[in-house]
Design a protein that fits this description.
Chains A, B, C: Catalyzes the condensation of carbamoyl phosphate and aspartate to form carbamoyl aspartate and inorganic phosphate, the committed step in the de novo pyrimidine nucleotide biosynthesis pathway. The structure is a homotrimer of 329-residue chains. Chain A has 329 residues and is of the alpha/beta class. The first copy, chain A, has twelve helices and nine strands. In chain A, the strands form two sheets. Chain A has a five-stranded parallel β-sheet, covered by helices on one side. In chain A, strands 2-1-3-4 form a four-stranded parallel β-sheet. In chain A, strand 1, helix 2 and strand 2 form a beta-alpha-beta unit.
């Protein structure tokens, strides 16, 4: 698969793209020596955040800077700019595409990044479009699994928490359709269960999906626990929210039952759904995700914008990652 | 005319400055090859926006970055900084002038940039001072005309919409005093007509000014339609605002009547005063303005800050631009 | 004293650190020639401001840029990011430490930067933690004294204004414990006097402390007047605030009595506690502080992050600064 022009939704990615991207991320890692790279020198990225996200914005900007590119940034485009005067995302994108070589867009409306991509002649990366998707988050989540466990196939993965409104969990679930022999367990409160539509799509793509309630009983046999925050802002009914949150907490007691070779992930921010006492457990991989994400996004920017070939070290088998150094084991 | 130390108001610019600036902008265009230029390497620009404007801020920051300079940026200086503690613009400017080699200031008060310029020993560029002026917008508007039509003289130009409160239209009108043989048509709702004072100043400077209502009838003979948004925030009376907006809409019907060699400009953002179906018309030049503006601002920064001579390709006659490539024709 | 890993509080600094830092700041000054330095090329600084401060943020970002490093910046992290979703400063710091090589943190809570420093493996600089400390402000204040007066010892210094809530004055007072033969005069309204605890700590460290009311009488014999703003936001009682502010104004009349060789400092922003007519007096050093602060912060970043040795020009005696060029005399 050639590199896509725009990065808009998980559906775009096939297995070969994902695996090559992960290997490119590895080469970014080795490239992060003394000094910034000059691979993207002369390229300018614009980050347009109509909904604030310090973490995601800084991750993209760090990736671009480390590749030698330039950054222009709107941290708060929604409240401060022409948006309040009624400008469409299409107009904003067309104008900023006159300044920059790549747009990274976060927007509260589903489909906003795609609408921007339809009218500009520079690449657009969707950094979260409201309740819809967050494709680079899904990529960095799966990259973290690959990095930490050495493979993306044959895994038992539990998605926990908000599987209805949380776009990170849904985006990752969709990306898992590119893995093989995956058993997916959905552990969600009744008000935040995954939509039937998505469950059927996963099953149709060969992912074995099981909904269940007993995370404790499941823990010993899981490779990955992907915990998510119950997001108050996605609930219209406060009682539903209160019932949903705090139902599945990852604490020391759960960790004692959890597979000693497994990892815990979280798209972050977390509130209290993972107890801080778990942070020092080597299986707590959620802070390592940040650095993995940096390399993944460097690889993505480099691939989308770059003209220089990447020397990818060929690994022996299709899905074997160079586990070790950073891994949780 | 030597380059001015500060860029504060349209009145500063004479014809020779404008024409040399446009030719410098052309050389910036050719310089935008692979890699950023190093012309302003080691120079640091501070953008201080006390009133948000994503578009203008990003345009200046892209220009500086592409010239190899550095940027420090306050996207939201008004609400977040010492301004709320009662600090004057003079004090803020004096302090930031200790960090940076150039200040770009947007401020809600008329004269704010000039007050800053009076107390610092680095160049100051006015990026919009409230209801007053937006001189670099006027320069990029006229540069777009020069680029798209190949000349700045002998043109029939209509300014449409808010000619009383809109600083973009008023700034451009003032800059047109540096052109020759210009016929200017003012098409504004009764509540937003250009002040008599400005009309008299234009006439006094040799611009032939006509106020009229019938944009449709005028369209076939116009070279430039400069459409503007009726800005609600400039109206104190909501009824006046409602009466004014939506009176002169540029749509397919108007475009059918419009001069096939003409161009439509807009300082943007637009709301509904240009119908989106017009966007694909090659005469719709308002999105090309963004890129023209980038080069114009690069030329301005380079001229104000630079020490390296610019090699300007000499064109045969005084006002002939190298029309072609990007033009609408 | 080796360079500290983190810069969190004034207490960390001893006399030898302070003096070497000042000499390093001098070498930064000479290094600020044409072009940015490449000393920190490849290093990335993240500024996380949970409480806005345009001045301090831009100062750090200018320093980093002039040293060739990269910057990722959250101007408004408190209101826009995960913080509103309930994320702790520890979590935010851990994630951003995955992107950047250094964190500069401003936060409304005392101890926030220290809490961040405890969990990350990159250096953290405290850029103000609520009512607590602002250690780099104290360093640049004392550096300004050293630069302007040529020494840090044997000085008569008055701290004026808010000595209870203002962290700048308190931080400087603590740093003065590293100077010798200092006479410190505290001139504060009754509701904003320095805490007894801090006064005792100063006395215990050998600083001769006197509280008094008559700034006019004292002025002729002072070397430094350090004026501060009475900060409304630190007062819970509006009547106390009104009584406190405006009690000690520095105006032309006071300047006529003031030591002709002395200097006036202010951490800025000022409101009306220094009359603008004083600005042109060569003893008004408060705007020169901004540039001194730039070099001081460059030295600090370079020392904390740098691997290249700094060539410090050795001055003859321990505390003699190269007074002259920029000084007020």
């Amino acid at each position: 698969m050639p590199v896509p022009r725009h990065i808009l939704e998980v559906r775009q990615f096939d297995r070969s793209f994902v695996l090559e991207l992960f290997e490119r991320a590895e080469s970014m890692r080795s490239l992060a020596g003394p000094g910034f790279s000059a691979r993207l020198q002369g390229k300018l990225m614009a980050t347009l955040f109509f909904e604030p996200s310090t973490r995601t914005r800084l991750s993209f900007e760090a990736a671009m800077t480390r590749l030698g590119g330039g950054v222009i940034s709107a941290e708060y485009a929604g409240a401060t700019s022409s948006a309040v005067k009624g400008e469409t995302i299409e107009d904003t994108a067309r104008i900023v595409a006159g300044y920059a070589d790549l747009l990274v867009i976060r927007h509260p409306e589903a489909g906003a990044a795609a609408r921007a991509a339809a009218v500009v002649d520079v690449p657009v990366i969707n950094a979260g479009d409201g309740p819809n998707e967050h494709p680079t988050q899904a990529l960095l989540d799966l990259y973290t699994i690959w990095k930490e466990l050495g493979r993306i196939d044959g895994l038992r993965i539990a998605l926990v928490g908000d599987l209805r409104y949380g776009r990170a969990a849904r985006s990752l679930a969709m990306l898992l359709t590119q893995t093989r022999d995956t058993e997916l367990f959905l552990v969600a409160p009744p008000t935040a269960r995954m939509s039937q539509e998505l469950r059927l799509a996963l099953s149709g793509a060969g992912v074995r999906v099981t909904e269940l309630d007993d995370l404790e009983g499941l823990a010993p046999s899981l490779d990955v626990i992907y915990q998510t925050r119950i997001q108050r802002e996605r609930f219209t009914d406060l009682a539903d929210y209160e019932a949903a949150r705090g139902r599945y907490i990852i604490d020391q007691s759960l960790m004692r039952r959890f597979n000693p070779q497994g990892i815990v992930l979280h798209p972050l921010p977390r509130v209290d759904e993972i107890h801080p006492s778990v942070d020092d457990d080597p299986r707590a991989a959620y802070f390592r995700q940040a650095r993995h994400g940096l390399y993944l996004r460097m690889a993505l920017l480099d691939w989308v914008l770059g003209e220089q070939p990447v020397v990818v070290t060929a690994y022996s088998s299709g899905t074997a990652a160079p586990a070790g150094g950073d891994s949780a084991s």
